[in-house]
Structure formats: C-alpha cells, structure tokens
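Bumping my old thread because nobody answered last time. Still need a sequence for this structure:
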C-alpha cells in the first residue's frame, strides 16, 4: 500500500516510516517541519506542507491508500499555557486533514492518540473502556479527534485506529534516528544528558507520590514497538475489519527512580539529580493494560526499559560524534 505519513519528520513518525518501508509499503512523508527535522525524513519523498493547507493535501491524498497521522503539538504543560495553539493544530488541523481525506476518498487512518485521553484513571493498569476524562487541553484535543473519527466512521464508513500511546521512548537500533525535541522535556533524554554531563542535573518531580518508591510510574514503550503496532493496525483496517481504539503500552510500569537506575546501569555514570516539587498535572501512575491490542492485532511490545534506555543512549552518542565531526 501507499501510505501518507503526516508528521513523518518527527520522532515517532520517522521510525514508523522506516517500519512501513521494511514491511514493503510505499511512503510519502507530509510535514511542515515546525517541530520535525528534514534529516529524520532523509531517503523518503517529503512533501513540505501543513495539515491546515487543504490545497497541499488535495495534491497528495489522491496518490495514497491510507493515512498515518502523527502531526500534533504534544507538550502537556504548553497546552495549559497556550491552549489556542493546541486546538488550532490538533483540532482545526486534524479536521482539515480528515475532511481533505474524505473528499479525496481516502478512508483509512491510523491516529496517534494518547493515554492522556483517560485523565487520572482510578484503576491501574488502564483498560480502554474506562471513561475518557482528560485533565489538560492536550488530552482534550486528542479526545476531540477520537470522537470526530467515531462520528466519521458511523456516517461515512471512514475506518480508523486510535492508538493510545503511553510513554514513547528509545531509538532505532541503527542510531541514525531518535528523539530530538527542542526544548527537551522528557525524562529519559534529560537523564541521559545529565549523566553525560551535557545537561543540567535532573529534577525529579516529586518523591511523595503514592507509589512504591514515591516517584511517578509510567509505561515506557520503545518507539519501534509503537511503529510495529501501526503496521498491525494498518493491516487490520486493510483486511476490512472494524475501526477500534487500543492502548499501546508494555503493561509494565517503571518509576522515575527505576528509570534513573537503568540510565546509570547503561551509561556507567551517575545521574546528578535533586528532588523538586511535583509537576502540575502529573498523575501518580499510568500503565497500560495492553490485552486488547494483543488480542485484536496480535501485537505486543518486545523491548524492555533496558533496551529503551540503551538505544536512546546509542542515538545520543552517535549524534554527538556526528556533530563533533562537522
Ligand atoms: N519527570 C521528572 N523530571 C523531568 C521530566 C520528567 O521527574 O525532568 C517525570 C515526570 O514527572 C513523569 C515522568 O518523568 O512522571 C515522565 O515524564 P515525561 O515528561 O518524560 O513524559 P509524560 O509522562 O509527561 O508524557
């Protein structure tokens, strides 16, 4: 199949573009490069455009069979201070894409949703059928798009897979692509930078949570495991099966303290750190129950926290060498 990867110059999109190619599909990347990097799209046809530009979309959509939609603003904190940007990009942009696809007759989409649609779940691990009650504008914007997909499915037979990611992390084994955020706010890259002496000491956001060691627990899923879930979801829809939403996580939680220990083990260096107050909006624990994706897609995560951290470290080291040689 020919797949339009919207946001394919970003972190998860670039890994999935490669996974699609490995699975024998053709890929066109569509990205406005606002947060993406041209280097991450190297080797693919890249159309520079914005999802709010329906003319640009109308030119490329007739060439594809399905869409994967990764293009979104994705910082929870920023969504609280600048909700306008989140609703503009994730909601208005999302609808512009959906309508352009409908007009072009492309009626299959794999959507990057998030566990943030659940808000603060009462029960861990999280199952898909609990109420969706997001607690920040980012989660609200993603929930809106999920609901738009549900309506378009009923009305227009527009088939979708809403993949609710937990914490995407790690990098391709090649070390050629990986997580590149500016500013970086994510725990694993920040802990690695601190260990390498390339960044400030790590701030541990709270150590008084109701968790075994007092630090927040998350479900860190390797980006290539996420990518393979997208391929399975695409195959599911291509086989004419029904639309669905599913968690994409490992089912195993790791605390901030456990992540720090994994970073110290992989790098052989100490992570300089201090405990600071909790970050507003951080639930104590978010861990997936991945049983639905397993049953429906025959997919499960194959990599553990150690692999996540060591591939992220490999990417950071390679990038450092490449930058130093320039
Ligand atoms: N975290 C932390 N210090 C940091 C960044 C993150 O202690 O500098 C914690 C954060 O409170 C959360 C976990 O690490 O419990 C993962 O945060 P991240 O921002 O990586 O992902 P999120 O869960 O917000 O999507």
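Sorry it took so long. Here it is:
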């Amino acid at each position: 199949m020919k797949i339009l990867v919207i946001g394919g110059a970003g972190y998860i999109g670039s890994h999935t573009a490669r996974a699609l190619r490995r699975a024998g599909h053709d890929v066109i990347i569509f990205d406005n490069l606002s947060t993406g990097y041209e280097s991450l799209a190297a080797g693919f046809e890249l159309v520079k455009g914005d999802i709010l530009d329906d003319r640009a979309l109308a030119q490329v959509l007739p060439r594809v069979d399905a869409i994967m939609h990764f293009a979104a603003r994705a910082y929870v904190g920023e969504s609280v201070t600048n909700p306008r940007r989140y609703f503009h990009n994730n909601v208005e942009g999302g609808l512009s894409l959906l309508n352009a696809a409908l007009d072009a007759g492309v009626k299959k989409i794999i959507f990057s949703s998030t566990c943030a649609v659940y808000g603060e779940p009462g029960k861990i691990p999280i199952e898909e059928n609990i109420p969706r009650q997001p607690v920040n504008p980012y989660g609200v914007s993603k929930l809106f798009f999920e609901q738009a997909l549900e309506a378009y499915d009923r009305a227009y037979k527009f088939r979708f897979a809403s993949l609710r990611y937990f914490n995407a992390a790690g990098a391709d084994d090649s070390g050629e692509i990986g997580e590149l955020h500016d500013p970086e706010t994510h725990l694993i890259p920040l802990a690695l930078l601190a260990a390498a002496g390339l960044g400030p000491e790590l701030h541990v956001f709270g150590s008084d949570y109701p968790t075994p060691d007092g630090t927040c627990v998350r479900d860190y899923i390797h980006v290539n495991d996420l990518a393979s879930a997208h391929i399975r979801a695409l195959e599911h829809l291509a086989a004419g099966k029904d639309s669905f939403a599913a968690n994409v996580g490992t089912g195993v939680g790791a605390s901030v303290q456990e992540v720090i220990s994994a970073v110290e083990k992989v790098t052989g260096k100490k992570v300089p750190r201090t405990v600071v107050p909790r970050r507003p909006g951080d639930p104590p624990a978010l861990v997936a129950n991945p049983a639905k994706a397993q049953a429906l897609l025959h997919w499960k995560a194959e990599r553990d926290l150690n692999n996540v951290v060591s591939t992220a470290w490999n990417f950071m080291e390679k990038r450092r060498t490449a930058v130093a040689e320039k």
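The domain at 2-168+221-248 is CATH 3.40.50.720 (Rossmann fold). Let me know if any region looks off to you.
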